[in-house]
Amino acid sequence: MTKIALFGSSGQIGQAMLRALLSTTFHEIISIDQPASEDKAKDIAVGSEDKRRLKTVGMDILEASTDEIASTLGGVEVVVSALNGKALTTQGKIQDAADKAGVRRFFPSEYGMHHIYTDEKGRGILHPTWNMKEEAISIALHHPAIAAGRMTYTLIGCGDFYNQDREKVWCPWTQRDAPSYTLHILGDADAKVDFTHINDLAAFLVATIDNPSVSENKSLNIVSDHLSYNELAALLEKYSKKEVRKVVYPIEAMHRAWKDPQDIPEEVKGKSAFPDDFWMLVKGMQGSGRFWRPPGQVHNDLFPDLKVMTFERYFQSRFTS
C-alpha cells in the first residue's frame, strides 16, 4: 500500500498521524482538509524529502460532492479518517467516494473507548459524543463495499489520551511549568485505567498500514499504560518534584452532573474542550473500574517493535530534559 489519503490532518489526532506517516514510512500522502488547514499540513512536513511525498488538497468536505471527493483519490489504496465533530457526518460520503475510486482499505474514525452510562434507575444511556462516533462506525463497517469485499477496514481504538496539552484540567501534567498539580478524580483512585499517548496511536496506525494482512477487517486497540490515579500521582510527584494534590469526588457526582449540569464541580466546569457532562462520564467510568479492556482486546503484541510511551517514560522525558 503506497498511496494514502488522510482526512482531518489539522486536528489533534490527525496531526500526529501525518507526522508518523511522513517520518516512519515512504508512502505517498495526500492530506485532504479545509483550505485554511493546508499550510498546517505543509508545516508538519519539515524535511524536503517529506514535502515531496506530501500533497495537500484544500476542500470543504461538508459541501463537496461524492464525485468531487472521488476525483482526489485516484490511485489511493488507503483512506484514513481522523474526522471528529460536525465533519464526522461526512465520513459516509467519503467512504462512498473511496469506493468509487477503488480504495482497498478504509480506516473509520474511532480512536477512543465508548461506554454506556447507567443512571440510578438502571437505564443505559450513550452520551451524544460517543453516540455520534458509534453511528459513524456502524455506517462504515456495514458499507456496501465492505459487505461485497471490494474494500477492507481497520478500526483502531485506544485508552484515554493523556498527553493533550490543551487540556489543563484533564491532563494537568502537560503543563510542565505549573508550580503544583491537582488531579480531579471521580470514584476509586485505585481503579486501573487504560491510557494512550497520541503518538503511540499514530505509530500503531502506521504499523497496521505497513502490515495489511495482519490488520485486514480487524478491530484493534493500542494502550500505552494501565495504572490507577494513585499510581499516576506518585509517578508525577517523583519526577516533577512538585506537590500533587488529589481531589476525589464520590461517584454520585457523576449521577448528579448527568441530571443537572449545574451540579458539575466549579473547579472543572468549563475547563475542557469537551462538554462538561462528557468529562464527568469519562472520569466516572474510570473511577468505576470500567475504563480498561480485558486481555485479548489489547493488540500491542501484534507489532513487537512498537515501543509505547508509558507514564514513567513520559514523565522522565518531560521533567528531566
From TrEMBL:
UniProt KW keywords: NADP, Oxidoreductase
Superkingdom in the source lineage: Eukaryota
Name of protein: NmrA-like domain-containing protein
Domain NmrA-like as annotated: residue spans: 3-257
KW Oxidoreductase (keyword) present: yes
UniProt xrefs under SUPFAM superfamilies: NAD(P)-binding Rossmann-fold domains
Organism expressing this protein natively: Aspergillus mulundensis
GO MF terms, alphabetically ordered: oxidoreductase activity
InterPro entries: NAD(P)-bd_dom_sf (IPR036291), NmrA-like (IPR008030), NmrA/Isoflavone_reductase-like (IPR051609)
